[in-house]
Each structure stands twice: as C-alpha cells, then as structure tokens.
C-alpha cells in the first residue's frame, strides 16, 4: 500500500515535493482523501476519511470503494467511475464537483461533495477522490428553504386574505362618499369615511410593497419594458406628486435635456420608482425647500437626478439606505418611522431589473441626490 501511495504522490505532484511529505499532507487533511486501484479497491484512506466514515484505514484497506456508498448506488458506481476515466481524461476540476451521498460505518447516510482525479501509475489507472461532508451545510440550506417556503406562504395569505378586506373597505367608503353628494350622509360621517378610505389605500400600498420585495428577493420581479419617451414618462410621474409637494410647501421643478433618447422601460414600474424617490425627497425636505428632477443623457443612455434641499443623511447611515426596512434617522432621531422602509429597496430592484443602476449621495445638513441610470 505504501508503494502505491508514494507512486500516486509522485504522479500528482510531478516530483515537486518529496513523496513522504505530500502523503503526510494528505493524511492530515480534514477532507476525506481516498485512492483506489483499477479494481476500485481502496489503497489509501486518510484521517479525514476515518473521521467522516467511521472506519479505520485497516478496516477498509483492500475493500471495494462501493462499501462507502448507499446500497442503491452500488450497482451503477463501478460503471460511473470507469466512464469517468474514459470520458474525462486525467482530471475533473474542483469546480465540477457533483453532490453525492456517503454511507458511514453506523449505517447513516450523509450528503457529500467529491472531486476525482485519474492518474496512470505503472501503466495502471489509479483514482484519487477528495470528499467533503456537507451535512451541516445541507441542514442550513434545508432550513433556509423551509423559511423561504414559509415566507412565500405568508405572502400568499397577505396578498389574498388581507388585500380582499382592504379592497372591500375602499369600495364601501367610495360608495358612502358617492351617496354623500345627494346630501343623505352627514358631513362629519363623510370626513371619517374619507379617513377610512385613505387608511385602506395605505394598507393596500403596504401589501403591494411587501409582495414586491418578496418577488425581488426571489428573483421573480417581472418588468414589461417598451420604448418610451423619457420626457413624458417623468412628467407623468411628477404630475401625481405635485399635490403632495404643494401640501408640504416644497417647490418641485423638472428640467429636461434636448434630444433625449428613448428608453426601454416599463412605464408603470419606473413611475413607481419615481414616486418612491421623489416622495422621499418631499418627505425629508422642510417647507420652503426645493426638489429638482433633472433628466439628461448619461453613460448608459439616460440619467434621472432627484436632488433635494432637505436634512441629508448621516454618513454612517448612507450605506444602508437600500436595505429593506431600514429607516433613516437624521440628526440622531430615534423612535419615529416615516414608512415601512421598503421604497428604496423596491426602487433598486426595479431599476436593476431594467439593467440600470441607482445610487444615492448625501451629506447631513446639505441635502440628498438620487441618481438613476437607464439604458436606451
């Protein structure tokens, strides 16, 4: 067995290290290192293999490699190894690892990753395998998969069981307000119904944000881009924001370069992005301030800059503004929430789905600028 190990070592290392030193490295590896001859009998079994499989080297020496596999895989195993030797030449790269299952001495199966290399020693094939027990990682992945499934189930409940009553409230409130026009409903009741209608609309918007974040994180956000004129796209989005600007006492201005290129964009989704970004700018700009939206040519094709004269963002918080549920707290304020903290993460997901970029630059006390780039 020692002669075979030394021969394998010399072939593998091309005599760049003494065989004894190289075989010593293999012996102490935490991964299982196993070598078999052409008959697939085990000729090397290191300490890592002993720890993983529960056998000693003496117990497995000369035994067939199939003893380390679950019974259902044993009939096909010999053909797989021989087929590897015929089809893959000398070696399979580590990046081509395939997950397999191993069998411990106790009878317990476990998931593993293995890489294999074929070497020719004295005109005979020798197969060396490096195997890693990935049970812990598999448990984490299983737990993560269960958590994602539970989250998706919860989102299904949110989208159906919560959205339906929210929509019912909106419709009933609208019908009461419509009846009020005939004078049959007291004005005090109408005002309370309007508040209910606004609350239901906010609830519906939050549900939509939660669903969008879930889709973005799962890579399932869909956009329907088409060629659109950026001037009309931005102007239309800002039109719905002007009443909010007037209410806040903030001037909202837009400027457009000449000969702007068309962009390939989903109008509804880009409008959603601008509503979030401009809405934030208005929210954090004090009365008497200003929000400027500039549309111009840029590196990818089109740049939209939204700049405000608001409070700005502290430097320590700036790297987190696109994190979901993150709340900016200017000047160290705590305990106040201006929303769910989902608008900017959703905006980033939408822009990236378009192949664009979004970034924010800010300085506490000096305002904030959001820069959006979209491809033509």
Brief overview:
By secondary structure, this protein is α+β, with helices and mostly antiparallel strands. It has three domains: 2-133, PAS domain (Beta-Lactamase); 139-217; 226-375, Heat Shock Protein 90, CATH 3.30.565.
What this model shows, in words?
There is one protein chain. The protein has 376 residues and is an alpha+beta fold. The protein folds into 3 domains: 2-133, PAS domain (Beta-Lactamase, 2-Layer Sandwich); 139-217; 226-375, 2-Layer Sandwich (Heat Shock Protein 90), CATH 3.30.565. The chain is built from 11 helices and 12 strands. The chain has helices at 2-13, 19-28, 47-53, 57-60, 74-87, 135-180, 187-217, 230-239, 242-248, 267-283, 343-353; strands at 32-36, 42-45, 98-103, 109-121, 124-133, 226-228, 251-256, 263-265, 290-297, 301-308, 357-362, 368-375. Helix 1 (2-13) crosses helix 2, helix 8 (230-239) crosses helix 10 and helix 10 packs antiparallel against helix 11. The chain is elongated and about 95 Å long. The model is unreliable at 4-17, 93-97 and 332-337 (pLDDT under 50).
């Amino acid at each position: 067995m020692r002669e075979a190990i030394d021969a394998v070592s010399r072939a593998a290392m091309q005599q760049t290290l003494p065989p004894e030193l190289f075989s010593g490295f293999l012996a102490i590896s935490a991964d299982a290192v196993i070598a078999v001859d052409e008959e697939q009998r085990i000729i090397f079994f290191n300490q890592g293999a002993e720890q993983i499989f529960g056998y000693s080297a003496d117990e497995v020496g000369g035994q067939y490699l199939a003893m380390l596999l679950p019974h259902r895989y044993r009939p096909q195993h010999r053909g797989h190894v021989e087929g590897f030797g015929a089809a893959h030449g000398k070696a399979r790269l580590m990046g081509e690892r395939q997950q397999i299952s191993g069998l411990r001495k106790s009878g317990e199966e476990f998931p593993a990753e293995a890489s294999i290399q074929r070497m020719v020693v004295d005109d005979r094939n020798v197969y060396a395998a490096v195997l890693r027990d990935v049970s812990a990682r598999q448990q984490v992945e299983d737990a993560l998969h269960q958590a994602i499934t539970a989250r998706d189930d919860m989102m299904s409940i949110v989208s159906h069981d919560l959205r339906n009553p929210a929509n019912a409230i909106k419709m009933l409130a609208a019908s009461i307000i419509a009846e009020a026009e005939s004078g049959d409903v007291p004005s005090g009741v109408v005002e309370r119904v309007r508040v209910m209608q606004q609350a239901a609309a906010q609830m519906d918007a939050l549900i939509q944000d939660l669903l969008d974040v879930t889709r973005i994180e799962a890579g399932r956000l869909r956009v329907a881009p088409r060629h659109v004129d950026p001037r009309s796209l931005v102007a239309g989005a800002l039109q719905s924001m002007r009443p909010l600007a007037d209410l806040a006492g903030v001037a909202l201005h837009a400027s457009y370069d000449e000969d702007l290129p068309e962009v390939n964009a989903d109008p509804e989704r880009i409008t959603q992005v601008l509503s979030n970004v401009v809405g934030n700018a208005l929210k954090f700009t004090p009365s008497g301030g200003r929000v400027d939206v500039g549309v111009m040519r840029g590196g990818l094709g089109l740049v939209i800059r939204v700049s405000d004269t608001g409070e700005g963002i502290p430097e320590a918080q700036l790297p987190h503004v696109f994190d979901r549920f993150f709340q900016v707290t200017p000047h160290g304020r705590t305990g106040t929430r201006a929303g769910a903290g989902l608008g900017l993460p959703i905006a980033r997901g939408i822009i990236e789905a378009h192949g664009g970029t979004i970034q924010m630059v800010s300085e506490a006390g000096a305002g904030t600028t959001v820069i959006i780039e979209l491809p033509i």
